[in-house]
Amino acid sequence: LFLLFFTTHEELQTLDVDDAFFSTPEDIAARALKPQGGVNFIRTFKKQEEDQAVNLPPNLAELVQNATYVQSPDNLVWQYFYNLKGSAEYPFPGGVFQWARYRINGTGLNETEKIFSESLNKHENTLTLATLRIFSNGLGQPHFHFNANEMGYVISGCGQVGVILSGVTANFNIGIGDVIFFPVGTQHYIKSVCDEDLFLILAYSTGNQLETLRMNDYFHGTADHILAQLFFKEQAEFKKFPRAAK
Description:
Layout: H1 17-22, H2 26-33, H3 38-42, H4 60-63, H5 74-77, E1 89-92, E2 95-100, H6 111-122, E3 128-134, E4 139-145, E5 150-156, E6 159-165, E7 168-174, E8 179-182, E9 187-192, E10 198-204, E11 212-214, H7 215-220, H8 224-231
Antiparallel strand pairs: 1-2, 2-3, 3-10, 4-9, 4-11, 5-8, 5-10, 6-7, 6-9
């Protein structure tokens, strides 16, 4: 079972090998492929009613006698493959992230991480991927991303999502199999509401380093005297908000 993300908001267009073959005139295919038997051999191919990219033939064992692939060199494989489950964990209050992403400063990355990171960055329309685990009753605090749309899929657990719009917050519940989407710049939060952890896989529409601003960062980044004017509170009261340790 695969979970796939594609970098398009248009209707996905796909051309399979068999579709291309059967869309090609018989004489053209025969001249291009040059099989024994020529065009008569080409005419022995029959288009199946079902899409063979999705439905495997019931007699596959009779059709295929040997299916082997030579393993590619590691430095080639790592451009396309990354062991996300085995990667470093990045904890935050309430949960933990694991990332498959580009990082501007690659210091501390192992060779696999460096090759994958650079591969993401040098190709257009790539994705940053992550797994997000929010502990039971934990919170992924309000935040937004400057440079990416975000899409997520719930693997396990259940939670509540809030999308903070101008003057109103939209709340909804999420469970296994649900998909969530946050357009770029949309402030949102996720909290776990089950006894078990909430676990999601997330995709961000950027191959650059993801830029995120969290509520505690921009609140603490605003001068106390400005906050006093905004909220009609004495300036000293804003000392009650603890600052995260660096």
